[in-house]
Amino acid sequence: MKPTMKAAVIHQYGQKNLTLEQVDIPTMGAEDVLIKIVAASLNPIDSMIMAGGLKILLKYKMPLILGNDFAVVVEQVGSRVTKFKIGDEVFGRAAKNRIGTFAEYIASNQDDIALKPSNLSLEEAAAIPLVGLTSYQALHDILAVKPNDKVLIQAGAGGVGSMAIQVAKTMGAYVATTTSSKNTDFVKSLGADEVIDYHQTNFEDVLSNYDYVFDTLGGKSLENAFKILKPNGKIVSVSGTPNRRFAQSFGLSWWKTAAITVASRKITKLEKEF
Questions:
Q1: What string of pLDDT tens digits covers the 274 residues of the chain?
Q2: Cβ–Cβ contacts within 10 Å for residue 274, how many?
Q3: Distance CA 45, CA 55 (A)
Q4: Spatial contact of 66 and 8, defined as CB atoms under 8 Å apart
Q5: Is the pTM above the cut of 0.85?
Q6: Coil, strand, or helix at residue 165?
């Protein structure tokens, strides 16, 4: 009989609540580590997967264990694992085809994890991977922010926003952000140079000539972001419809890529109008 573990699973998309069940402990590959979950964080993508909002991109078999981020202790290592040893405290984001951090154990390729920084608790480390990768990819890989560039980061007190402020400041940018007055001191402590209380002020009325906007809100906030850009300025949004680049990164078939491209045309049209 295979050893089992407790896990929070869904049996179909649209299921309202997770169910706690006994399931088999994951099987390891030669380059995998078997890790005991100590802490896992919740992200919007977890609820999107649960609702079926990403099923055109990600095909999962049911029952499905949810969860993307984790901080863990290594329990076993595969025969070709060279980066980690039993007892190491590590953190990471599960590969998109191997999610399942809402469980007692997960098997992960050694390339998908890193040693936990000694100055972070396991709980703190578990909150970093997805928002950290999202922020780094947006600001570094896509926008290529340079020192003294002016960047607006929407919703600076949120999970992605709070990480993005720190990443942008590390890259030498001048950072403005939106938040409520109760979070002003918090976002300033992260490095924000200018803080707009969105309850009192419309950011598009006080900001101008910005190089980049990192949008996390969508809707009217995304529309108004185009008003503050300098010529050839750019916006990255994590709130809108996935585009062709996103679809191709998942290795989707041509027809799925085409469908997502069509769905993203509204944002493309909006960008041209502004």
A1: 789 999 999 999 999 999 999 999 999 999 999 999 999 999 888 998 999 887 877 789 999 999 999 999 999 999 999 999 999 999 999 998 999 999 999 999 999 999 999 999 999 999 999 999 999 999 999 999 999 999 999 999 999 999 999 999 999 999 999 999 999 999 999 999 999 999 999 999 999 999 999 998 988 998 899 999 999 999 998 875 554 554 455 454 444 444 334 334 433 333 333 3
A2: 11
A3: 12
A4: yes
A5: no
A6: helix
